[in-house]
Amino acid sequence: MLISIGHVTRYTYALPATSSIYTLRLTPPTFEGQRILSWRVEMPDIQQALRYRDAFGNICHLVSIPRTHSEIAIIARGSVETQDKSGFVRGATEVSPTRVYRRQTDRTAPDESIADLVAGLKSPDRIDKLHELMQVIGERVTYEIGATNAHTSAVEALKDGRGVCQDHAHIFISAARLMGLPARYVSGYFVTGGDTASEAQHAWAETFIDGLGWLGFDPANQLCPTDRYVRLACGLDAASAAPITGNRRGGVDEVLDVFVEVQQQSSAQQQ
Amino acid sequence: MDWQSGRKLQQQEQTSLKVGASLRKAFDEMNGAGDGVRAPYTAVSEWLGTQKLDDLKRKLLEAETMFRRTGITFAVYGKEEAAERLIPFDIIPRIIAAAEWRRLTAGIEQRVRALNAFMYDIYHRQEIIKAGKIPEELVISNSAFVPEMMGVEPPLGIYSHIIGIDIVRTSENDFFVLEDNTRTPSGVSYMLENRETMMHMFPDLFARNRVAPVDDYPENLLKTLASVAPRNMDGEPTIALLTPGQYNSAYFEHSFLADQMGVELVEGHDLIVKDGYLQMKTTQGPRRIDVLYRRIDDDFLDPLVFRPDSILGVPGLFDLYRAGRVSIVNAPGGGIADDKAIYSYIPEIIKFYTGRAPILQNVPTYNCRKPDELKYVLDHLPELVVKEVHGSGGYGMLVGPTASKAEIEAFRQKLTSNASNYIAQPTLALSTCPTLVEAGVAPRHLDLRPFVLFGDEVRLSAGGLTRVALQAGSLVVNSSQGGGTKDTWVLQD
C-alpha cells in the first residue's frame, strides 16, 4: 500500500519561551514490509539538528531553538510503501538485545489485576494466547478519549476500564512482560479506511516470540498490524517511543495542536 | 594525660565492649593483635609517646580552625540544627606500608578494569548474562540499569572514570572490599585537605617518614578528564564541573576541585545545548564544553530523558552524549556496577572479564531476594549487618551486634515485607587505629576509600580517605553518621 502522511504539531505560548529543545522520533525506519519513498521533517533550526540512533534503534533528531519564541510548528510529511507481513517486523535496526524489553517501567509495572488478566488466559498455544490477551484487553478497556492522559499507567487504565490506544498498548506490554516475553511500545500511523483523510496517529504493542521474531498486536483495533500500519518509533513505553519530547525555558500557558493526515495513495497520485 | 595512660584507656574500653566476640579481637593498625607496634607505625608511635594529651588536643583545635578557614564543611541531611558542620578530623594518621599498598593497588586496578568491562558488556551485547553468570532479571529489572544507555560508545569504552572503593581490614593480611562507588563518589577533597593540614602542623613527622604525596590528584583528575574527550575533536578539550549548587552536601568539594584543576564550576542553568554542542554561557558569548565532570545524579542530568521536573541538569545533554558530542564523567548508568544486589557477583565478574581470580576479596553477602538466604538472615539478625540495596551514606542500615531488640524487630518486619530490597553481611571486625578522643587516645574502627582515576591509564592516589567511627565500638564510619577522617599515609620503600 502507498501511504501519504502529514503530521503537524504546533506549540503556542501566551507568554513566550526563552528557549526550547526537542527530541524528535519522527523518521520512520525501513525494514521488510516498510519502505520510505520520501520523508521530510520541517521546523526552525532543523538544519543544525543532531541526528543519531537511540537505544531502541529509532532515528532521532535533537533540535534546539536557543531564542525567544511564542510558537513552534513541527511538520513531518512523506510517503511510505507498506506490505502486509501478518504483523511481523523483520530486518529493523536493533540496538539492544531483546531481553532489555522485559524491563517494566513506571507505566507498565504490573499488579494483581494484570496478573489476574494473564492467569485468566485459556489458550494453550503461545501465539493464540497473545491473540486472546489482545481480545480481552479490548473487551475490558473501552475506547474513550479523555478518560486517561499521557501519564496514565497500565494498571490505572485497566482499573478504570476506559482508555485510548496508548493505554491498550501499555496493558498488553505489561501482561506480555509478566508472561516473560520481551515487549515494546510502537508509535506510528494507521490508515483507518479507504482513501479519505483521517486522524490517525496511533500506537500498538510488539512482542518477541522465540524463533519467529517481533510480532505486532493492536488491542485498540483487535488486529495484528497489516499494510495499513506505518511504524514510526518504538521503546519501553509511550515515553521512550514518543515522536516528540520537548523541554522549554519560560513559556506560559502552552497550547498543543496536533494534526495528522494519513491517506492511501493511488499509484497515479504517486506518479 | 600522656599516651601511656591513653593505652590503658584503650584496654578498658575493649574489655567493656559487649558487642560480640569478633569485635573484641579487632586488629589494630598500630599495635597489630597486641604483639607490639607494627613496623610502619614505628616513628609515629614513638612521637605519640612523647606527646602530652593537652598538646594533642590543642593541635586538634588548631586543625579544626584551619578547616573552618578553608570552608571545608559537610551538610548532613535531616539535621536542621547543624545544616553545615565540620567532619571531625583526627590528627593521628593511618599508615599503610609500601608492600601492603602494592597489593591493594593491584587489586584495585583489577577491580576497576573489570567493573568497566562489565558496564561496557551490560550496555552492549550482555555476554555475561548470556553465559549465565548473572541472572538476567537482576540486571534488566534493576533500577540502577539505565536502558537508554544501550549502545552508547563512551570514549575509550570507559564508564566510571572516578571510583571510590571502600576497603576494610580485619587482620594483618585480610582486606575486603565493602563497596565500589562507581557513580559520583565524594570525599577526595578531605584526603587533600587532611594532608595539607597535617604537613602544616607536623612538618617533623613528615621529615621522619617517607610519605607518598597525594597532591597530584587534581592534576591526575584533569589528565583523566582530558583523555576521555570526544573522539575527533580538535585542540585541547574544555572541561567543566557540573554541581547541583551550594546547597548540596558536597558543594565545597565541587568548588575545591574545579578551582584546583582550573576548570569552570557550572550549574545547569549556565549550560545550553546549541548547534549540536554543549555550550556554556559566558560574558564573551557561548563557549563549547567537551568534557563534563558531573556531580549530579543520573536522574537529574537531562529532563528530556530522565526526570522531566529536573532543573539541575541540561535538556538535550544525554542526546549529545549519545551522539559523541560531549563526554559525561562518570557515565550515566554506572550504578549497575555498584548496586548492592550485583555486589555478590563481583568475584564472578572479575573472573569473567579478566580471566583471573580476584586479588581483593568481597565480603560474603546474603541476597535476601533468595528465600534460603533470607531465612538465614532472619535467623541470624543480631550477628549481621543489613543494608538497603539502593541505600548509601550509612542510612537505613542495621548493625546487628550494636542494635537494640526493637531495632532488630523493626528490620525483621522490613525484611519480611520487602526482602529483595536488602542484602546482609557478617559483621566484620574492622581494624582499629589509635584516635584522639575526649578521654585520651583510644582505638576506633576505620575503613579506607582509595580514589581511582581511569582514563588513558589507571591513576591511583597513594592512600585515599580513611574514615573513622568516633563512637567507641561503632562500626559505622560514614560522615553522615558522625564518622570522622584521618590523614592516610602510604610509606615509600
Descriptive keywords:
heterodimer, A: 271 residues, alpha+beta, C8orf32 fold, 7-stranded antiparallel β-sheet, 5-stranded antiparallel β-sheet, 5 helices, B: 493 residues, Dna Ligase, domain 1, 5-stranded mixed β-sheet, 17 helices, 21% strand, disordered N terminus
Could you characterize the architecture of this molecule?
- The complex is a heterodimer of chains A (271) and B (493).
- Chain A is of the alpha+beta class.
- Chain A has one domain (2-270): C8orf32 fold, CATH 3.10.620.30.
- In chain A, 18% of the residues lie in helices and 42% in strands.
- In chain A, strand 10 (201-209) and strand 11 form a beta hairpin.
- Chain B has a domain at 364-426: Dna Ligase, domain 1 (2-Layer Sandwich).
- Chain B is built from 17 helices and 23 strands.
- In chain B, strands 3-23-22-19-18 form a 5-stranded mixed β-sheet. Chain B has a 5-stranded mixed β-sheet with strand order 13-5-4-20-21.
- In chain B, helix 5 (98-122) packs across helix 15 (346-354).
- The model of chain B is unreliable at 1-23 and 78-83 (pLDDT under 50).
Short description:
The complex is a heterodimer of chains A (271) and B (493). Chain A has 271 residues and is α+β, with helices and mostly antiparallel strands. Chain A is 18% helix and 42% strand.
Helix content of chain A: 10-25%
Task: Please give the number of β-strands of chain A.
Answer: 14
Spatial gap, N to C terminus of chain B: 34 Å
CATH topology grouping of chain A:
C8orf32 fold
Spatially, the strands of the biggest sheet of chain B line up as: 3-23-22-19-18
The secondary-structure class of chain B comes to alpha+beta
In one word, what is the shape of chain A? Answer: globular
CATH architecture of one domain in chain B: 2-Layer Sandwich
